[in-house]
Amino acid sequence: MSEWVAQTSLPWVEPLSFAALFAGDDIALLYSGLEERFSGGVSYLFTHPLETIHGDDWAALPALPATTDGLPLWVGYLGYGMREASPRGASGPITLPDFSFTRYAQLYRFDHQEKRIGHFTAHMMQPAIASFPAPPDSTARIVSLTSNFTRAEYESIIAQTVEQIHAGDFYQANITRKFYGQFTHTPNSWTI
């Protein structure tokens, strides 16, 4: 028996505008802005989470069914740490598990070519959206911004990394720079 049951077809709304109606809720949006025939013709919005699994041990990740009738059942990620052989360093200010997957009760499928939204549900629920009000404008301005590196320090680290790649120490690196700041008021997380 199919996990997803087609409930209705809704009038076309751009996926980002539609998802903004759920701002603040636990959602997952797989957005395709490409709108090409060979790729990127479909976006998915998942709402109303049913269960979540997460952890830091590859062995603790259960086998998850990938699709039913071509529609995803679980949405999530596998982090970089899942297959690293190196020992873990000290914890940083951002603490995310190495894997996290959520199963949702509602699925909206956006067909960019046909300009249609299909609504599917894992349980016999009504669509969560009956009309499409415009999301409130809660644009927050940045009033201060700092970083953990100066520009010169960051460029120096990148130069050292390039040298190490040329020396054969490693072949790939992800050098990041963190920024911290304050807003004029608490922003709408979706607009960020």
Question: How many extended strands?
Answer: 10
Shape: globular
Q: Structural class, please?
A: mainly beta
Mean pLDDT: 78
Please bin the fraction of helical residues. Answer: 10-25%
Query: Biggest sheet: strands, sense, closure?
Result: 6 strands, antiparallel
What proportion of the residues form beta strands (DSSP E)? 25-35%
DSSP helical segment count: 2
State the end-to-end CA separation: 39 Å
> Poorly predicted ranges (pLDDT <50, ≥5 residues)?
124-128
Pattern of helices and strands = EHEEEEEEEEHE
Radius of gyration from the CA trace? Answer: 21 Å
Summarize the structure.
With 192 residues, the chain is mainly beta. Helix content is 11%, strand content 32%.
Structure characterization notes:
The protein is mainly beta. The protein has helices at residues 15-20, 151-166; strands at 5-10, 28-30, 42-55, 67-68, 71-72, 74-78, 99-111, 116-121, 142-147, 179-183. Strands 1, 2, 3, 6, 7 and 8 form a 6-stranded antiparallel β-sheet that branches. Strands 4-5 form a two-stranded antiparallel ribbon. The chain has a two-stranded antiparallel ribbon with strand order 9-10. A hairpin with a 2-residue loop joins strand 4 and strand 5. The longest helix is centred in the last third of the chain and has 16 residues, at 151-166. The two termini are 39 Å apart. Mean pLDDT is 78; it is low at 124-128.
